[in-house]
Amino acid sequence: MDLIEKIYNAGIVGAGGAGFPTHIKLNCSVEYLIVNGAECEPLLETDKYLMRAESFKLIRAIEEVGQRVQAKRLIIGLKAKYKEEIKELRKTIEELNSKVELFLLDNFYPAGDEQILVYEITKRSIPAGGIPLDVDVVVSNVGTLVNVFDAINEKPVVEKYVTVIGEIKDPCILKVPIGISVAKCIEAAGGSLLNDYAVILGGPMMGRIIYKEEIEREFITKTIGSLILIPRDHYIVSKKELSIKHMINRAKTACIQCSMCTDMCPRNLIGHKLRPHKIMRSVGMAEGDEKILMEALICCECGVCELYACPMGLSPKSMNAYVKNELRNKGIRYQKEQGETIAKEIREYRKIPVDRLISRLNLNKYKGRKVVGPIEVKSNEVHIPLKQCIGKSSSPVVSMGDTVSKGQLVGEVKIDELGANVHSSIDGRVFEISDCIVIRSDNSEVIS
Q1: Per-run averaged pLDDT (10 residues), the chain, 448 residues
Q2: For residue 110, is the peptide bond before it cis, meaning its omega torsion is within 30 degrees of 0?
Q3: Helix (H) or strand (E) holding 404
Q4: DSSP character at residue 193
Q5: How far apart are CA 193 and CA 213, in angstroms?
Q6: Measured at the alpha carbon of residue 39, what is the angle toward residues 151 and 122, in degrees to the nearest 5?
Q7: Per-residue b/e over 24-61, b at no fewer than 16 CB within 10 Å?
Q8: Are 90 and 102 in contact (CB under 8 A)?
Q9: Residue spans of alpha helices (H) in 73-122
Q10: Which DSSP helix (H) or strand (E) runs through 229?
Q11: Consecutive H or E run containing 79
């Protein structure tokens, strides 16, 4: 069976958060295969764990994928500060006589952004509106490649490693079935230290926020790699609670057009014509300049402008996201820039140190806490979304009352479709079919 078919059968999507179907992404030929081990967001530990504990799987999968995409160079991009991970990877590369290379990055944000990583390693700027293939590169996450190794051995994606940190009794990495509730993950990590809190699903810069009363109704998917518990009145939460009307009013009255949001924008610095300060003015002053507003479509929503750069505490990223959504609802798409894209020379001096970012986000108290694990968690009930990736939702292939086994296909897409198969993550029976498939078994336990 072809590697692409095995990846499709296993239902692999980008594990780093974006969730692009891997069987579609890797159906190509390129010069560079780059594996993202930079753990882009602050405080996260999952990819570091995988590079230490699953280095054999990772290197073997990179070699298999590299052969499939005919890559001349196979490179893992990770931070130079990851001493233990570098040691393990180099040891495995030597044992396997592999041609995989390591590229060591400075500790800056967003080093793990796909387009920034490509520029750091190749010095090629992906054109605005483009993808890595435009510069003969394909990028995949560490966790995705570990899943590829399992797919080669005909094991589908049914489990996820999740970092649980912040206001939690026992910061840890959990190994959980896809579809387990966020509440059970928090319980397995000893519970929260606070009576009231919010949870960031993902990283503090780009993650989605839910509240304590929602944790029973939120479930781990293939793309959620961390849970960060923070006080409900934390700065990050209050920023994301602002209404768009409030953001527009603040832009109108408080934006001083200093252009710091633009000057620090990582995509602007690699040569993209993205100017958040102009978008803020156009929306805030109701100018409606369509050419300016179109620039929002190339914003990656990394949050640098909003959570780090703006001296007035405004919301350029959220404004960009709002404009982007409005334009897409009208069917407007960004046309890829033609010609060579040139990064700005000043870029090297505008990389954001992660330690300074953590301090700016008021997350210092969580930095450096020992993270144990992995702790394997079992659940007697899972809610498995039929859509866990960019693209099309899968279609159920089971019926109410069916008995299913762990790893059994429960939702399917065609191999040429932008979507991914989903599988049962436990043994049990199907109790509900909606946008999720609910499966229940008889017992629940936590295994250390």
Answers
A1: 94 89 96 94 93 97 97 97 97 97 97 95 95 96 96 96 96 97 97 96 94 96 96 93 91 93 97 95 82 94 95 94 92 86 94 95 92 94 95 95 96 96 97 95 52
A2: yes
A3: strand 403-404
A4: S
A5: 16
A6: 90
A7: bbbbbebebbbbbbbbbbbbbbbbbbbbebbbebbbbb
A8: yes
A9: 83-95, 114-122
A10: strand 226-231
A11: strand 73-79
* 3-class secondary structure, 26: coil
Report long-range pairs for 235-244 (Cβ below 8 Å, ≥24 apart).
235/361, 235/362, 236/200, 236/204, 236/209, 236/307, 236/361, 236/362, 237/198, 237/209, 239/306, 239/307, 239/315, 239/318, 240/209, 240/318, 242/315, 242/318, 244/318, 244/319, 244/322
Under 8 Å between Cβ of 141 and 50: no
Quick one: tokens of 422? Answer: 């989903």
Is the bond leading into 374 cis (omega within 30 degrees of zero)? yes
* Pair of tokens at residue 111: 């080093």
> In whole angstroms, what is the distance from residue 16 CA to residue 14 CA?
6
For tokens 């295994």, what's the residue? 447
Q: DSSP for 280-312, please give it.
A: HHHHHTT---HHHHGGGGG-----HIIIII-TT
Global confidence as pTM: 0.93
Encoded amino acid at 50, one letter: L
What whole-number distance in Å separates Cα of residue 318 and Cα of residue 9? 37
Question: CA 86 to CA 268: how far, in whole Å?
Answer: 31
In whole angstroms, give the CA distance from residue 203 to residue 118: 21
Tokens of residue 394, six digits: 């899968």
Please say whether the beta carbons of 212 and 198 come within 8 A.
Answer: yes
Chain position carrying tokens 């991914």: 420
Neighbours of 339 (CB within 10 A): 6
DSSP 3-state assignment of 156? coil
- Answer for the pair 375, 174: CB distance below 8 angstroms, yes or no: yes
Q: Tokens representing 196?
A: 């009231």
Q: Say which amino acid occupies 409.
A: L
Q: What letter represents residue 258's amino acid?
A: C
Query: Measuring CA to CA, how many Å separate 237 from each of 44, 123, 207?
Result: 18, 36, 11
Please list the residues that pair with 409 across neighbouring strands: 423
Q: What amino acid occupies position 118?
A: V
Burial of 102 (0-12, 13-18, 19+ CB in 10 A): middle
- Spatial contact of 56 and 92, defined as CB atoms under 8 Å apart: yes
